[in-house]
């Protein structure tokens, strides 16, 4: 049973850069069956996909955040990371990391999530 | 951008059937996925590829899709099913992967 755990600062100042890391345990981040993603949820609001990464480094970013987002992977540590620049109060949210599993054809879906970490800007 | 539209709330009496809809222009050609999020917890996948149920998800959860509307059905709703439910899908171009606006299910 794979588990995911987010880590990083809970408070970041406006205009600064948020850096979060997700550590994967119970399985390899280098599996060809999975991508790895970041999703966020502002307090009292809905879910928003930030982006995903494959162990090879191939990425997908939400077009609305693409200019500010970088997702990277460290296979030696079984971790992937998120950097979000130029923060504003609108970036205050619970940030989740999740496993993005390959399904039928090119479809993928998030089937295992971390507990989430609240980031306040 | 692409949008998936859900009703803000659905109420159901315990033991009755709740239906949650998700409308999107690309749904005739793209799968829908459903997530349950209880208060203060991370989302849990309850339906994938329109109608498949992951292991460990009770049989009372089912999914279907017809035209531009996907539907999550909870047959015989239980108190523990009170939660927010989100649909998830992708637009025709593949450029936008989005969650629906969410539906709060109340079990009376």
Task: Report what the structure shows.
The complex is a heterodimer of chains A (121) and B (108). Chain A has 121 residues and is mostly beta strands. Chain A has strands at 3-7, 18-25, 34-41, 48-53, 59-61, 69-74, 79-84, 93-102, 108-113, 117-119. Helix content of chain A is 0%, strand content 50%. Chain A is globular and about 40 Å long. Chain B starts with 8 loop residues before the first strand and ends with a strand. Classes of the chains: A mainly beta (121), B mainly beta (108). Chains A and B meet through strand 9 of A and strand 3, strand 7 and strand 8 of B.
- Identify low-pLDDT runs of chain B: none
Radius of gyration of chain A: 14 Å
Shape of chain A: globular
Average residue pLDDT of chain B? 97
Number of helices of chain B: 0
Derived structural class of chain A: mainly beta
* SSE pattern of chain A: EEEEEEEEEE
Helix count from the secondary structure assignment of chain A: 0
What is the SS-derived class of chain B?
mainly beta
Helix content of chain A: under 10%
Number of E-state strands of chain B: 9
Task: Report strand % of chain B.
Answer: 35-45%
Oligomer: heterodimer
Overall 3D form of chain B: globular
Major sheet characteristics of chain A: 6 strands, antiparallel
Overall number of strands of chain A: 10
